[in-house]
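[audit] Reproducing an earlier prediction to check determinism. Same input, same settings, fresh worker. If the tokens differ from the archived copy the diff job will pick it up downstream; this log only records the rerun itself.
[audit] input (191 residues):
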Amino acid sequence: MPAKSSTIVTALTAAALVAVGVLGYQASASAPDTLSQARKGGHQAPEGHPDGHGKKDTKDRAPAPAPVPAASGAGRRIVYSLAAKRVWLVGPKGTAQRTFAVTPSTVSPPRGTYAVGSRSVSVMGSDGVAIEHVVRFAGVSGVTVGFSAAVDGSRPDPGAGKKTGGIRESREDGKAMWDFALHGTKVVVVP
């Protein structure tokens, strides 16, 4: 083989090895945590799966999310449970995309079906706290009821004696609600 073709073959081989190395690195960087733990010698059994020693691996496992209330209708919707103080963002197939705890307002909407009527990126709450990602869906006795997150992360004091309609959520949950709850989105309030 002439020296020039040998040099070309060597260069192509080196380029191929670099490409394989880069692809391998990218694949390992995006691998699920369970794979990277296995590579490091750790072991995490899938949820509910015996770990090979007759025990279930429960370390670092979050509790199962609360199921969507059965009597909350069908289709894409927001479900708000008054008793559970919890919200579910439910996709079109009836599966919860997210669920989270909330702090109820002092004025609660009656159970029933509503729709998102208005939204505000940021305003001053009726309790004097700056709030963001406001999603309004009902009115009760002259009080507007909706979901919001306090910019300072605070939760309202239910014993303050003020009539408020703000159902408070964390800022992270408020952002998820904002992204999900477009104008007209169905809101189902259950006991």
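[audit] rerun output stored. Observation attached for the diff report: Residues 3-29 form the longest helix (27 residues).
[audit] end
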